[in-house]
Design goal:
This protein is 62% helix and 0% strand. The chain contains seven helices and no strands. The chain has helices spanning 2-8, 12-18, 24-35, 41-58, 65-74, 81-90, 96-114. Mean pLDDT is 82; it is low at 116-125 and 127-131.
């Protein structure tokens, strides 16, 4: 019953993203990952991209998750260039929400190093799942 109440209170875009989740706790965990943290520029950017990908899916477009991640990486500013190199070298296979978390970690490192102008040189992804095809 809780699942139905949660789904009814969501926008169509969020409903589409969560329709395959059978348990209310799974939906709540996903929402917590997406919206449960204080906003940062990269987080806000990623949430906007996720929303756009979800709208495209609702309208019938089928964009594979790996392609969505690649597209998201291409939209990042120059300050994330080292992050992108590291991501590609480690051949990670992560979701957009996981990418958002990793980017927030990298953004925090960038801010502490030199006020958002220094590339991440010591970034190590927390996820080590290899990219599969």
């Amino acid at each position: 019953m809780a699942r139905y109440y949660i789904m009814a209170s969501m926008s169509n875009v969020l409903q589409q993203k969560h329709q395959n989740m059978d348990i209310a706790a799974q939906i709540m965990e996903s929402l917590q990952e997406m919206f449960g943290y204080q906003g940062t520029p990269v987080r806000d950017h990623m949430l906007a991209l996720i929303a756009r990908f979800n709208v495209a899916e609702v309208l019938g477009a089928e964009i594979q998750s790996e392609m969505q991640v690649d597209m998201a990486l291409e939209t990042l500013p120059e300050m994330f260039s080292q992050f992108k190199v590291s991501y590609n070298m480690n051949k990670l296979n992560i979701s957009l929400t996981e990418l958002m978390k990793e980017l927030q970690n990298a953004e925090a490192i960038l801010k502490t190093k030199s006020g958002e102008t220094h590339a991440v040189s010591s970034y190590r992804p927390s996820s080590s799942k290899p990219k599969g095809k």
